[in-house]
Amino acid sequence: MDHENPGRRQFLAGSLALGTASLLPARAVADGTPAAAAPAPAAPAAAGSGRLTFHAIDTHHGSTIGALRVELRRLQGEHYEPVKVFDTVKNGRSDGAVIEGDALTAGLYEAVMHVDEYFAALGTQLPSPSFLSKVPLRFGIHDPSQRYHLAVLFNP
User: Fold this and answer.
1) Three-state DSSP class for 33?
2) Considering the entire predicted model, what is its pTM?
3) Residue 20 pLDDT more than 80?
4) Which of 54, 57, 80, 135 could be joined to 113 by an S-S link, Cβ 3.0–4.6 Å?
5) What is the pLDDT, as a whole number, of residue 63?
6) pLDDT of the residue at 32
7) How much is the pLDDT for 111?
8) Percent with pLDDT over 70 in the chain
9) At a CB cut-off of 8 Å and minimum separation 6, what does 93 contact?
10) Residue 147 in contact with residue 50, Cβ under 8 Å?
11) CA angle centred on 42, ends 83 and 45, rounded to 5°
């Protein structure tokens, strides 16, 4: 451990604290209640009030500086079926909700990021074959009345 760099240790400790806090129920974090004593989650809110947003950060360039094409798919039976194709805006975020309201249903999804096309459009020199090309991220929506945010870091 680097004892001469308290800035790094503080950053790591803060990151660990934030990561741990994200696993606790929201009320436990807000009022300091220990996780074991936190009440059970409330019943789901009204259907159709949830949403999914997306944010991708290019760690090679320091921020997402171009559009990243993403295909959102939902598992239907044994196959992922297309739901929506979108491009992130220049800051790497979806332009509003990717999917929301009644269109957001419980189930398994995947977001396929076209990082190879993103880096090619920027003229980034990549090895052949490139380390990453189409990157699928699989996730589940258990309560479509909630808000979900898919945040991703990527590089070549």
Assistant:
1) coil
2) 0.68
3) no
4) 135
5) 87
6) 55
7) 98
8) 69
9) 53, 54, 55
10) yes
11) 40
Q: Which of 154, 155, 151 is nearest to 18 (CA)?
A: 151
| Cα distance between residue 23 and residue 36, in whole Å | 12
Structure tokens at 114: 């076209």
At 44 the three-state DSSP class reads coil
DSSP category for residue 39: P
Beta-carbon-side half-sphere exposure of residue 36 (alpha carbons within 13 Å): 0
Q: Is the pLDDT of residue 118 over 90?
A: yes
Least Cα distance to 85 among 76, 95, 145, 77 occurs for 95
* Length, in residues, of the chain: 156
SS3 53: strand
Residue pair 83/109 in contact by the 8 Å Cβ criterion:
yes
The structure tokens listed for 147 are: 């808000």
What are the φ and ψ backbone dihedral angles of 21, each rounded to 5 degrees? -65, -30
CATH of domain 51-154: 2.60.40.180
SS3 label, residue 123 = coil
- The tokens for 72 are 């959102």
The one-letter amino acid at 44: P
